[in-house]
Amino acid sequence: MTRADERKADELRPVDMQADYLIHPEGSVLITVGQTKVICTATIEEKVPGFLRGQGKGWITAEYSMLPRATGSRNRREASAGKIGGRTMEIQRLIGRALRAVVDLEKLGERTLWLDCDVIQADGGTRTASITGAYVAMVMAISKLELTAFPVTDFLAATSVGITHDNGAILDLDYSEDSTAEVDMNLVMTGKGNFVELQGTGEESTFTRAQLNEMLDLGEAGIRQLIEKQKEILGDTALRIGEETRSEL
Amino acid sequence: MTRADERKADELRPVDMQADYLIHPEGSVLITVGQTKVICTATIEEKVPGFLRGQGKGWITAEYSMLPRATGSRNRREASAGKIGGRTMEIQRLIGRALRAVVDLEKLGERTLWLDCDVIQADGGTRTASITGAYVAMVMAISKLELTAFPVTDFLAATSVGITHDNGAILDLDYSEDSTAEVDMNLVMTGKGNFVELQGTGEESTFTRAQLNEMLDLGEAGIRQLIEKQKEILGDTALRIGEETRSEL
Amino acid sequence: MTRADERKADELRPVDMQADYLIHPEGSVLITVGQTKVICTATIEEKVPGFLRGQGKGWITAEYSMLPRATGSRNRREASAGKIGGRTMEIQRLIGRALRAVVDLEKLGERTLWLDCDVIQADGGTRTASITGAYVAMVMAISKLELTAFPVTDFLAATSVGITHDNGAILDLDYSEDSTAEVDMNLVMTGKGNFVELQGTGEESTFTRAQLNEMLDLGEAGIRQLIEKQKEILGDTALRIGEETRSEL
Amino acid sequence: MTRADERKADELRPVDMQADYLIHPEGSVLITVGQTKVICTATIEEKVPGFLRGQGKGWITAEYSMLPRATGSRNRREASAGKIGGRTMEIQRLIGRALRAVVDLEKLGERTLWLDCDVIQADGGTRTASITGAYVAMVMAISKLELTAFPVTDFLAATSVGITHDNGAILDLDYSEDSTAEVDMNLVMTGKGNFVELQGTGEESTFTRAQLNEMLDLGEAGIRQLIEKQKEILGDTALRIGEETRSEL
Amino acid sequence: MTRADERKADELRPVDMQADYLIHPEGSVLITVGQTKVICTATIEEKVPGFLRGQGKGWITAEYSMLPRATGSRNRREASAGKIGGRTMEIQRLIGRALRAVVDLEKLGERTLWLDCDVIQADGGTRTASITGAYVAMVMAISKLELTAFPVTDFLAATSVGITHDNGAILDLDYSEDSTAEVDMNLVMTGKGNFVELQGTGEESTFTRAQLNEMLDLGEAGIRQLIEKQKEILGDTALRIGEETRSEL
Amino acid sequence: MTRADERKADELRPVDMQADYLIHPEGSVLITVGQTKVICTATIEEKVPGFLRGQGKGWITAEYSMLPRATGSRNRREASAGKIGGRTMEIQRLIGRALRAVVDLEKLGERTLWLDCDVIQADGGTRTASITGAYVAMVMAISKLELTAFPVTDFLAATSVGITHDNGAILDLDYSEDSTAEVDMNLVMTGKGNFVELQGTGEESTFTRAQLNEMLDLGEAGIRQLIEKQKEILGDTALRIGEETRSEL
């Protein structure tokens, strides 16, 4: 069976990243992956949370939210509910953790990077689009700091893979695929091809090691393409990524 | 003295409204007023709040929010703070009240219209841009309902006027003007030129009746122009607005 | 048609202010306007909120609340609900803003004035009675500070005006009038006759400029009478109000 | 040593109860005990909480609050804090429990009595004054229900007793006595002289059985006087209290 | 009538205290009273709350909680509800107050003792078991501090007494007795036989002074036995309790 | 280098499960994994959440918490903080999702299983111990329902694997290993050897596919041993697990 939008199993949806989308933030990107659209902004704050104070290290943290009508039916705002839901918390912790894996926090210095990912339209893959877009916003903000050593050590992008009843293992699930998938996996990888995070879940279902390997192959190839896109957007700044690690060799 | 952006005292900033900006909502508009950008969406819910149940009348309510980096420095999310601030409450109550003034809630039938106004970039006048944009999103959503009598009774738009030390009474203040104004007034008016809401505040200052009249003159003229824009966007749907009132004559 | 309590359109309800109503606060007034009763207290705190620290300026802030049975049916306490409602927020922001317009915050020095307005019985006009009463409590508290320059620059009082179907424009609406009024406007004005705040709202209705002017005329006259009452209560202290402005001339 | 206000060890402060203090509630009393003033209101709601529904029994519940400046320094409102403190909870649970002990909830029928006790001025003994005053407000509200059997089975009043370093066991402590007392005890008793509630606490101190007995003697005598006051206020309604129990004999 | 578990009116349930139950806390006890089981832990924090800072005095505070299935039907977690209930607040305030009565806070020095009482199985008397167990955990934690003067001035234990329809006055009520008792009283007493806290409540009922005395006699005897158990568990540390008071003689 | 507790890289810590640990719950287990101790209870509620009502399907949900002194320093209670932290949310969502993967919710019928996992002592691996223990408590509770078809389709257990600087890939990390690990992975697998959930995270680090495979091998072997333990505890009930799937073949 073919996928609803005629894509092949190993094909990403069209991806676009519009840099400097907003005038105020130190870095901002509107990332579009198929019909999914996320505004990613990076803010630099010249202080760190209490647990890091005085250690000369920086911090990176993320917040994630969806507009009420990013989805087919209206979701109640978390501000109205008075608390942040479990899904939101999980996603914003994931984004922050992922970004921290490719930044040398000591070279960043005692400051905090806030990455805000606001989904204005959702069609599956909002958390992986958020990571891929937030990475670019973050690099843009960092490049405006006048740092002697560039603290970003590698590229970073994310995508989803899954197993559906009709099409087996597929790359980059849209909402209709995601909501019927038997297995759903999010992958975050670096430019060197290493894993940063891998979260696979059987949805009232399970999966074998062979299926795992099939999904990992699809995911790796997809992430390689996303990182190519990031390089295009970042232009010359891309050349600075990992320069410190190379120079240390 | 001339205004920072060379505008005349009675000149609006450039206004644009992009209809059907999102795929999911029943109505959606991205309104741009100068550098201020607000996503307005309209959602139709087929039930009413408890206090209206069983009366055959509909309800219109609004929610307002800003992305954390809509502004020059990052604002803490209200969802993280666990509560909605006073300014936000004031604005969303104003938006809802204003829209209800031009809709015959009985003709709307027992359903709720949710208007979500999410500011993605702020440069003054976010609440008045929200009203002007939300009105269009609302009319678009209502026009998709198959109602025998069109419940929208009139056009509705809003703008700000104020008094600054350097330029006296001016129309449509941007952020830099608003933050130094001595008097700040928001006006909501209908297509017939009647007031729906008028809120004038001396900011650690006061104003005379003559100044009030000067501001009202500027505001009326500005709102007339905004309503012309709304008519363009709405096209044929604009013709249905107020038709019921006319036919009742 | 005559008003339910036989008042003329331009007639205030009986007003009384009982000064030093409580033993603990630095200033306290029980204000009675018809059947509406509000306890207004002023507290002096020798520090300012974070955003003002170190600037040598003071701050004035207000809180407003109703006893559960201030009204015909019992309202749930906001403390039980765990959050402050939008109406309360709107009112307490209005009271604070209004009072700040007639106090020179630099002459006040680095301290905060807290004005607490607790409605023990409500019959319309609770927010305007709160402003009128809180002004007196505030002046009493300030007069106890040994300041070289008296920081209160003018008198301040508030009332409501509105348009009802049966009686047209009227002054000082009680609850039964307020709940059926087509237009409802709150006015805050100074002893010099300037506006501090003006908030007019069509309740699922609109109003013309001629109606606006009619309401403003009624309001101005009403406020003039309220300020006469304040002068009586304040006695000699009233003479100090605005003395600084006069001496600067 | 004599007490600061010249009272004898076994002497109550002057007590006054102003019935029908407010126009809206079904019952209302302003109780004054020395400088302590509490507004007690009774509201009848024609339904019961979920756990009692359908059992033909009524319920009695109380809420207690202090105005921010009821005390020498300003207390933050619990509504602003977003939660009710432990002391408030303890007191409102005590008031409700005490009142339920003298009402036959089956004879009350499936309705809830809300007793709101709002302290407008505090000088010690606010919880016991609340019970004594709320009892009267409650009886007044119940007497307006047209019930065939009067559900109030006995009188009820409360006072405090304590042990101070200088004066030994004393009755009805004011704030200055309460804050230095070694032992503090609240007593709630009925017209028949039985205990409903007795709460004695050594404040970083302890007490002997002999001291306990001395305090109980003082408390009993004080409560007898308070009940006399209640009978005066209630007039003929007082005659109905306990009539059912008597008729059952 | 005999009690359900064949106990005599003046008989405690079997009591056990397992010291050093957990590896991390400075003091820990699993106390078992019949089927009631409570984990009590003591934590030493080297700072005091704001209101005590700089006075050279320590502080003791307690928190109390039940596992959701400590009881016959599942209770919602207070963390999920987002707030602590009135009953929990009352109990944790009681535990803290009781412990403070037997510790010389000046000799403790500027540090806070946190006593956490977590009920893992409930069958009546959880608050009194918490006090009895927390006392032991507290003494163990204090004995690890190298203090020149031992700050614990006396032993402390708690039990419940009550009056039931079938058995009159009884000691140490289990859940089935407690839920049908007419009067319920909690007693906290010291090794010297003095009262620290006494809370008696008629549950929709009242009690006479003779009944009070009967309950106090039962309670005193029960507490004496509990203190004997504490001495066994504490071994040599028990000898240090009150040594300061003795040496001051 | 050898591990601190002399374990081999592929060695689990000692595991114990004490069934029927508490008297009230429908199923209860105290699971001990090394020094980690978790009380797991299962509660059956005869209704389902709103989104499932009327579909004839059941639901399984989990809650997770730690006692304040389960850890080396005291953690603030989430009930006191008034909200549940992100880590707790993530864990309780994981536990619920994992258990649902091995239960046929239609055969369970319209009821909810609540699994409460309360950590009384933590030394690493609390979430995986919770899953392994909660599975047993759940099966015990289900076996008390008189269901014609046994809804549990397979065994389920969880463990952690990781990569440390000194010892490379290791199984079942204790707290000291976990806090210094470069990669941390949680695995949930079934009796048939399939994955239910796999979550691997580079902690400010990354990992290769070869390292992933090494960790998966260790994890599979560890989980096989845990499932053997579960079979011992469950005795005859273990024979019913998966019987439906087998009979459907």
UniProtKB/TrEMBL annotation, chains A, B, C, D, E, F:
Broad EC category: transferase
Catalytic activity, as annotated: tRNA(n+1) + phosphate = tRNA(n) + a ribonucleoside 5'-diphosphate
Taxonomy, superkingdom: Bacteria
Residues involved in phosphate binding: 87, 125-127
Residue stretches making up the Exoribonuclease phosphorolytic domain: 11-141, 155-221
Molecular function as annotated in GO: 3'-5'-RNA exonuclease activity; tRNA binding; tRNA nucleotidyltransferase activity
Coiled coil, from the record: none
Record has Protein biosynthesis as a keyword: no
E.C. number(s) listed in UniProt: 2.7.7.56
GO BP terms, alphabetized: rRNA 3'-end processing; rRNA catabolic process; tRNA processing
Record's function text: Phosphorolytic 3'-5' exoribonuclease that plays an important role in tRNA 3'-end maturation. Removes nucleotide residues following the 3'-CCA terminus of tRNAs; can also add nucleotides to the ends of RNA molecules by using nucleoside diphosphates as substrates, but this may not be physiologically important. Probably plays a role in initiation of 16S rRNA degradation (leading to ribosome degradation) during starvation.
Similarity remark: Belongs to the RNase PH family.
PANTHER family: EXOSOME COMPLEX COMPONENT (PTHR11953), EXOSOME COMPLEX COMPONENT RRP41 (PTHR11953:SF0)
Protein name: Ribonuclease PH
